[in-house]
Amino acid sequence: MPKIDISNVPFKTGSSYPEKYAAQMEGRSQQSLGDAGGISQFGANLVRLAPNALSSLRHWHEQQDEFLIVTEGHLVLVDDTGETPLSVGDCCAFPAGDGNGHHIVNKSESDGAFLVVGTRTATETGWYSDIDMKVEAADGKMTFTRKDGSPVDAS
Asked: What pTM was estimated for this model as a whole?
């Protein structure tokens, strides 16, 4: 049946970031709704943010588009232009190759959530706007390095 029972989709917490950045994702969880429904050409994730939580480190993608719609609470988009308040129903679009790094922050005292849909590509390079880091994804593996390709410091 095409209907996805969200109550049966597990929450993922934690981070794939190097250890020195992973703790910054405390309070973030997601449900991979697209995976639960067998979708393979794009990802669809329901992301929940506790108060003061971040969706990710501020980043942008070379090949993958991202689109989101706020489904709960009051959140804030942080990008190169500053901070933009977001409420239920507000949408954001992040075209592939646009170097305007972004993330979503919950600065409220209540939980917030958004549905994010993004392209899936065989390989991808992402860039982190506020730190000296990039990620390369291939064959289901993510490799984090400094922007020049050298190793990221462990501490």
From this structure: 0.94
pLDDT digits (tens, 9 = 90+) for 73-129: 999 999 999 999 999 999 999 999 999 999 999 999 999 999 999 999 999 999 999
Amino acid at 33: L
Cα separation, 42 vs 20, in Å, equals 29
Q: Which residue has the tokens 């109550």?
A: 7
Of 91, 112, 114, give the one whose Cα is nearest residue 44: 114
* DSSP 8-state class, residue 46: E
* Residue 43: C-alpha distances to residues 39, 65, 84 (Å): 7, 10, 24
Closest CA to 121 of 97, 145, 93, 146: 97
Q: How far apart are CA 81 and CA 100, in angstroms?
A: 8
Residues 125-142 have pLDDT tens digits of 999 999 999 999 998 899
Please tell me the distance from the alpha carbon of residue 29 to that of residue 32, in angstroms, as a whole number: 10
Angle 56-29-70 from CA coordinates, rounded to 5°: 75
The tokens describing 63, both together, are 């090949």
* CA dist., res. 49 & res. 111, Å (int): 6
